[in-house]
Design goal:
By secondary structure, the protein is α/β, with parallel strands linked by helices. It is about 40% helix and about 15% strand. The strands form 3 sheets. The protein has a 7-stranded mixed β-sheet with strand order 2-9-8-7-6-3-4, sandwiched between helices. A 4-stranded mixed β-sheet has the order 5-10-11-13. Helix 3 runs antiparallel to helix 12. It is globular, with a radius of gyration of 22 Å. It starts with 14 loop residues before the first helix and ends in an 8-residue tail after the last helix.
Length: about 425
């Protein structure tokens, strides 16, 4: 059989996916697999260590027995879920949300944000994001052909020497204004923030919102941790009609109900914006998983009357306090989160052994990668190095910090605390 020679250029990947540099997740997973200390306690990725509440899982099982729930959902989402979200959020937004044209259901919040970028960002147009950032923002914006401009949150001045509040990470409005130009299309917010845990204050949001009105920018407000605030939480879309008219708010049933694997997200916003988010969503995946949408609808219908939101918030705040007690004991500074389930701790006092052997792909990276590798190999505890969420120019801000996800069972948190105590012999 003869064959035609294949020119390698024929299979050259598109630039938007060509990079094969190891990301943080593959490096941490590699270390966890090879660690001599097993089993690993994984406090790296933000997946829950426990099941969703029974009223949610029962609803999912019931949905599988319904013929229509096992077929394609409508592109914009199952009507019951859209109505449930509109009813749950209308009081929080201070207005009646129309479920038909102001809500769209997506395959997780991440696909929802990709749909926003694909729906509004032309190649060469610019999107402003704050550092540190959720890493998926970058690939999603670049997939749409967008150009990213970065504005770093300013860390607390004494964050490396004493316990601070996530609210002490501040917005430099002058830097934000300098990042915007005639090509800027959108600003992305994340509150409560990952990885910092900051809830943007009302005054910060007002300043950002007014600036976006002045410069005619779209606001994408990533509020996937909105049900886990420990301090007062303001939604930017509630600040004025002019701000609301340009704001798309993204949420996550997976984060709300402890079921990140379900991939049920949603966006709320003005009909004239949701229209194009839905159009992009249709082209990306057509529709999202139907039976789990039905279960999420039951979740939103029952959560308030069952006291689930308040219970969830109290339990997560308790987990944060339980875990952070070990940093108080060790004298390691940390940033108290305003919301969400991530904790940033500062390890500047931990002195890594001078001749410790790191693999080349870790040795060439900032200090937080070495800290994370060392913690996995020597203590059997996985955390995430947050320089992954910074540009090279600003990685210095995070090189002594590690991010921990506390959305785990209490016995796992206690095990992690015991392992962290092993750092005492490496501390100055």
């Amino acid at each position: 059989m003869s064959s035609t020679p294949v020119k390698s250029e024929q299979f050259r990947p598109a630039s938007r996916v060509a990079s094969q540099k190891q990301d943080v997740w593959s490096i941490i997973n590699e270390a966890a697999t090879n660690s001599p200390t097993q089993p690993i306690i994984n406090m790296g990725q933000g997946f829950f260590g426990y099941n969703p509440p029974k009223f949610i899982t029962d609803a999912a099982k019931d949905a599988l027995d319904k013929v229509d729930c096992n077929q394609y959902a409508p592109t914009k989402g199952r009507p019951r879920l859209k109505k449930a979200i509109a009813k749950a959020y209308s009081p929080l937004f201070g207005r009646d949300i129309n479920p038909d044209d102001e809500v769209v259901i997506t395959t997780g919040a991440n696909e929802g944000m990709l749909s926003v970028f694909m729906g509004f960002v032309e190649p060469g147009e610019e999107v402003v994001i704050f550092e540190p950032f959720f890493d998926q923002y970058i690939s999603n914006i670049e997939m749409a052909g967008g150009v990213i401009r970065y504005v770093p949150l300013q860390p607390p001045k004494n964050g490396g020497s004493e316990v601070s509040s996530a609210g002490d990470w501040t917005v430099n409005m002058e830097a934000l204004e300098k990042a915007v130009n005639s090509r800027t299309k959108m600003i992305v917010l994340n509150t409560p923030h990952n990885p910092v845990g900051k809830i943007f204050s009302k005054s910060e949001l007002q300043a950002i919102g007014d600036f976006c009105v002045q410069r005619n920018l779209i606001i994408l407000s990533d509020e996937v941790y909105d049900r886990l605030p420990f301090t007062p939480f303001t939604r930017i879309a509630t600040l004025s009609p002019a701000i609301a008219a340009r704001t798309l708010t993204v949420g996550s049933a997976g984060k709300n109900f402890y079921c990140t694997g379900w991939r049920v997200g949603y966006l709320i916003g003005p009909a004239n914006l949701i229209l194009y988010v839905a159009a992009a969503h249709t082209r990306i995946c057509f529709s999202s998983v139907s039976p789990l949408q039905e279960a999420a609808a039951v979740g939103f219908e029952k959560a308030e009357e069952l006291g689930f939101w308040e219970q969830s918030r109290k339990e997560m705040k308790g987990k944060v306090e339980r875990f952070c007690a070990v940093f108080d004991e060790l004298g390691l500074p940390y940033s108290k989160p305003d919301g969400g389930y991530f904790v940033l701790a500062n390890f500047a006092r931990v002195k890594l052994p001078e001749n410790y052997k790191f693999p080349p792909h870790v040795a060439e990276r900032p200090r937080d990668y070495k800290l994370a590798w060392f913690l996995i190999m020597e203590m059997g505890l996985a955390a995430i190095p947050p320089t992954e969420f910074y540009t090279k120019e600003n990685m210095w801000m995070a090189e002594d910090w590690l991010r921990f996800a506390v959305c785990k069972e209490d016995d796992v948190l206690e095990g992690a605390k015991e392992r962290l105590k092993g750092l005492r012999k490496y501390m100055s």
